[in-house]
């Protein structure tokens, strides 16, 4: 049988199989033919590198790294590089495929990729991080390229690492090549609006979904899990649209205020407190688990994978879930969410504002020109709204939840492009 249900792995779902389960449902609804299915189900290329790095104590450590290119059917592959102690190949494969679907959903001319290095960025000095980033770039110099494969930041990496990556790649090629990577610092060819782009896209998706559900933002409440780049920006911009944010959380726990959290103040507190909400006073401290199941209209998971699972999905009270994080809902929780009638704006749509503005950064680098913040925001908002409408229309047409609809839109586009380009 073509569309086989994957076997569950231990108690945590295998991210690649979780992605494939949704892919399979959408493929079956679309009647995807076997040839295209076989092309899309496996990554085009998986590179494993082992890079020696001299540590500050003079000893050499060898780090294992990955770059998975899932697809280049729509264009050069695009995707972040994750530095984390527990990153593994199946996770990178899933994230690479998600990038393919994400770029297709928002209709930008990129394929999907992802990178990872097993390391603990929080215990490494700046010098060690720089040597590791440069060594990883050297090992992948033939894989990366502005017309080939364009990395970006992900967990554990940021503008600093992207600057080193761009510099190392440029040195090896003998000229400055800004467009090889996105998410760079502003002075080095970064785009205005990139930092807040994902959170802004989450807000735009939330507003579009609330509109469909007949919810008035000014009379609605929300909680945001994760108060990093995505969560804090989403909270701030949603609050500006009138949504009362009753709770926010980070690794230190969750913070709740019946009258609404003052988001500007919470961000200022976090910025002065090493990026953490720990010790935040103007709220009651609750657990992260309580936050997820609290009585609010909108739940925005914007932290890590697998937080809405069969263990807590029964207790979720929100009417709308907007997935800022990648993969926050486990595959097994999907059915219960659907039975409860909760609308989910899935990750590959809701957090695609980030890759959209990364695409703008690449376009600006290639033009040798800088757009204004207004231009970036206006174009990104239009793309997010159009993408939302495309996915919503597919959900109506096929009578499926938004998540499956997003996969249908994405797979259909990639499959059609593949047909035009032709196989071997
Ligand atoms: P970040 O590192 O800036 O912030 C992560 C936040 O989550 C921090 O506040 C951290 O304390 C919190 N957190 C971590 N574990 C938690 C837990 N178990 N419970 C509650 N909070 C926890 O990361 P980010 O860039 O905001 O990314 C968040 C998510 O969004 C990730 O899944 C990422 O892949 C996804 N994403 C990010 C972007 C982007 O442009 N930054 C784009 C698309 C998707």
Characteristics:
424 residues, alpha/beta, Rossmann fold, five-stranded mixed sheet, disordered N terminus, binds nicotinamide-adenine-dinucleotide, oxidoreductase
Characterization of the model:
It comes from Pontibacter virosus. Substrate binds at residues 78, 102, 358. This is Glutamate dehydrogenase. With 424 residues, this protein is α/β, with parallel strands linked by helices. Among the domains are: 43-175, Rossmann fold; 197-350, NAD(P)-binding Rossmann-like Domain (Rossmann fold, 3-Layer(aba) Sandwich). The protein has 14 helices and twelve strands. Helix 4 (126-139) crosses helix 5 (159-173). It is globular, with a radius of gyration of 21 Å. The protein starts with 14 loop residues before the first helix and ends with a helix. Bound molecules: nicotinamide-adenine-dinucleotide. Nicotinamide-adenine-dinucleotide is lined by residues 154-155, 198, 225-231, 249-251, 288, 302-304, 324-326, 351, 354.
């Amino acid at each position: 049988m073509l569309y086989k249900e994957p076997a569950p792995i231990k108690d945590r779902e295998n991210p690649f199989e979780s992605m494939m389960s949704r892919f399979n449902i959408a493929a079956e609804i679309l009647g995807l033919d076997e040839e295209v299915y076989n092309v899309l189900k496996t990554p085009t290329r998986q590179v494993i590198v082992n890079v020696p790095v001299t540590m500050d104590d003079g000893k050499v450590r060898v780090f294992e790294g990955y770059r998975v290119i899932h697809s280049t059917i729509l264009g050069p592959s695009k995707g972040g590089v994750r530095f984390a102690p527990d990153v593994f190949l199946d996770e990178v494969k899933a994230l690479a495929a998600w990038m393919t679907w994400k770029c297709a959903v928002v209709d930008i001319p990129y394929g999907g990729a992802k990178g990872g290095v097993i390391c603990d960025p929080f215990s490494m000095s700046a010098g060690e991080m720089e040597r590791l980033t440069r060594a990883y770039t050297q090992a992948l110099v033939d894989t990366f390229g502005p017309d080939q494969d364009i990395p970006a930041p992900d967990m554990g990496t940021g503008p600093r690492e992207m600057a080193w990556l761009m510099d190392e790649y440029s040195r090896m090629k003998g000229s400055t090549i800004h467009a090889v990577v996105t998410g760079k610092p502003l002075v080095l060819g970064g785009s205005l609006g990139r930092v807040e782009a994902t959170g802004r896209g989450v807000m735009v998706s939330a507003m579009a979904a609330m509109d469909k559900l007949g919810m008035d933002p000014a009379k609605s409440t929300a909680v945001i899990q994760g108060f990093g780049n995505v969560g804090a920006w989403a909270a701030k911009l949603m609050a500006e649209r009138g949504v009362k944010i009753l709770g926010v959380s980070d690794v230190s726990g969750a913070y709740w205020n019946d009258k609404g959290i003052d988001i500007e103040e919470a961000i200022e507190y976090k910025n002065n407190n090493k990026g953490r909400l720990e010790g935040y006073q103007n709220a009651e401290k609750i657990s992260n688990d309580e936050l997820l199941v609290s009585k609010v209209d909108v739940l925005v998971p914007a932290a890590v994978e697998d937080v809405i699972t069969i263990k807590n999905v029964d207790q979720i009270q929100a009417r709308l879930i907007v997935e800022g994080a990648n993969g926050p809902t486990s595959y097994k929780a999907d059915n219960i969410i659907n039975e409860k009638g909760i609308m989910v704006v899935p990750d590959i749509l809701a957090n695609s504002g980030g890759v959209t503005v990364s695409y703008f950064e690449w376009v600006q680098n290639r033009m040798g020109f800088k757009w204004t913040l207004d231009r970036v925001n206006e174009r990104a908002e239009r793309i997010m709204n159009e993408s939302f409408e495309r996915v919503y229309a597919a959900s109506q047409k096929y009578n499926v939840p938004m998540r499956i609809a997003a996969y249908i839109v994405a797979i259909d586009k990639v499959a059609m492009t593949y047909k035009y380009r032709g196989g071997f």
